[in-house]
């Protein structure tokens, strides 16, 4: 067996494309770090949210809000998310043993 025969590294892609791929990866990582730091700054400036107030009211209103998904519908593209949600619910209801 010839020991000089090896497989091509990175599927024989030209070097400029490899450099471009890693440059875009670095740019993506920098963008993710920037977005995380921006989110962390926003969260750290805010006040704590008291979610334990009115527990009975929250428990009574939770099921209708879950079914209606009102906050999703109010968003700009929320109708797409709501349509997916309804399709999944109907599929699970129609074929319960497949999930």
Structure at a glance:
With 99 residues, the protein is an all-alpha fold. The protein is built from four helices and no strands. It has helices at 15-45, 55-68, 70-74, 78-94.
Write the layout of secondary structure elements.
Layout: H1 15-45, H2 55-68, H3 70-74, H4 78-94
Characterize the structure shown.
The chain is mainly alpha-helical and 99 residues long. It folds into two domains: 1-46; 54-99. Helix content is 68%, strand content 0%. It is built from four helices and no strands. It is flat and about 75 Å long. The protein starts with 14 loop residues before the first helix and ends in a 5-residue tail after the last helix. The mean pLDDT is 79.
Features of the shown structure:
68% helix; 99 residues; 4 helices; 0% strand; 2 domains; mainly alpha
What Rg, in angstroms, do the CA atoms define? 25 Å
The N- to C-terminal Cα distance equals 51 Å
| Mean pLDDT across all amino acids | 79
The number of strands is 0
Order of helices and strands: HHHH
Shape: flat
Strand content: under 5%
Q: Low-confidence parts lasting 5 or more residues at pLDDT below 50? A: none
Overall number of domains: 2
Structural class: mainly alpha
- Sheet bearing the most strands, described? none
Q: How many alpha or pi helices?
A: 4
């Amino acid at each position: 067996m010839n020991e000089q025969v090896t497989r091509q590294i990175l599927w024989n892609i030209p070097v400029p494309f490899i450099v471009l791929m890693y440059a875009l990866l670095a740019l993506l990582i920098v963008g993710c770090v920037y977005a995380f730091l921006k989110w962390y700054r926003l969260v750290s400036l805010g006040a704590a949210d008291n979610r334990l107030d009115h527990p009975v009211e929250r428990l009574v209103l939770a099921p209708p809000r879950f079914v209606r998904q009102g906050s999703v519908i109010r968003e700009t593209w929320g109708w797409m998310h709501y349509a997916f949600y309804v399709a999944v619910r109907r599929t699970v209801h129609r074929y319960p043993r497949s999930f």
